[in-house]
């Protein structure tokens, strides 16, 4: 764009590369950043660089961690280390923790099996999960991948892989969301809700 200075155009392009940020949102973010005092802009840039240089994967669960040591969840003696909840991404850990019900630990795969996107088991953190389970002390592995084709494929693959270790492998129950109506639920959701029913 000829009406933007090259530096501003570059900033807009960098913001537009972020997921969920379109061209107009990228322009808004760029203009907002330019309106900030220089120290605020420098603090923003420093936060990005610091996060990139200091955040790594937890050597135990593969979640995001500060430095080389284990993440706070793996390091906590209050967590139940005999139960592992397997999730696709670090943001799924945040979602699970928001519910404040789960007291076990996690394992982050950093993706799901997706042949269409050329992602196979070797591209995920599956070997590390198998190592954790084979080391002993794990009683249950909960599959908490999304209820879509890739998530189901990944859960089934891991279930078969972990069966020989003699651990209980479970799947999150899926069904009717709280506050919704049966008339708006599709057949697959209703089927899952029936399968996941429990005694009251």
Describe this structure in words.
The structure is a single chain. The protein is an alpha/beta fold. The protein has a domain at 77-181 and 187-193: Dna Topoisomerase Vi A Subunit, Chain: A, domain 2, CATH 3.40.1360.10. It has eight helices and six strands. The strands form two sheets. Strands 4-3-5-6 form a four-stranded parallel beta sheet. The chain has a two-stranded antiparallel sheet with strand order 1-2. Strand 3, helix 5 (90-99) and strand 4 (104-108) form a beta-alpha-beta unit. The protein is globular and about 60 Å long.
Largest sheet, strands/sense/barrel = 4 strands, parallel
Order of strands side by side in the largest beta sheet? 4-3-5-6
- CATH topology grouping of the domain at 77-181 and 187-193: Dna Topoisomerase Vi A Subunit, Chain: A, domain 2
Poorly predicted tracts of residues:
none
What is the structural class?
Answer: alpha/beta
- Distinct helical segment count: 8
Helical content, roughly? 40-55%
Shape: globular
Level-2 CATH architecture of the domain at 77-181 and 187-193? 3-Layer(aba) Sandwich
Q: What's the CATH first level of the domain at 77-181 and 187-193?
A: Alpha Beta
Give the termini separation. 63 Å
Compile the SSE list and pairings.
Elements: H1 6-16, H2 23-35, H3 38-54, E1 55-57, E2 64-66, H4 72-75, E3 80-87, H5 90-99, E4 104-108, H6 126-134, E5 140-143, H7 149-162, E6 168-171, H8 187-195
Parallel strand pairs: 3-4, 3-5, 5-6
Antiparallel strand pairs: 1-2
Helix pairs in contact: 1-2
């Amino acid at each position: 764009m000829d009406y933007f200075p090259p530096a501003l155009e570059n900033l807009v392009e960098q913001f537009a590369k972020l997921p969920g940020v379109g061209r107009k949102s990228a322009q808004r973010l760029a203009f907002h950043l330019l309106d900030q005092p220089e120290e605020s802009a420098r603090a923003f840039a420093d936060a990005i660089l610091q996060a990139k240089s200091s955040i790594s994967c937890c050597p135990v669960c593969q979640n995001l961690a500060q430095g080389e040591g284990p993440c706070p969840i793996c390091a906590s003696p209050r967590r139940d280390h005999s139960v592992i909840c397997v999730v696709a991404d670090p943001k799924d850990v945040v979602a699970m923790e928001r519910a404040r019900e789960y007291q076990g630990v996690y394992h982050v795969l950093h993706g799901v099996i997706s042949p269409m996107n050329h992602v196979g088991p070797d591209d995920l953190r599956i070997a590390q999960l198998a190592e954790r389970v084979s080391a002993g002390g794990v009683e249950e592995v909960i599959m908490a991948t999304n209820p879509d084709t890739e998530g189901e494929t990944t859960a089934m693959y891991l279930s078969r892989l972990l069966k020989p270790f003699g651990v209980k492998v479970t799947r999150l129950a899926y069904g009717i969301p709280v506050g919704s109506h049966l008339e708006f639920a599709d057949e697959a959701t209703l089927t899952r809700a029936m399968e996941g029913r429990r005694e009251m």
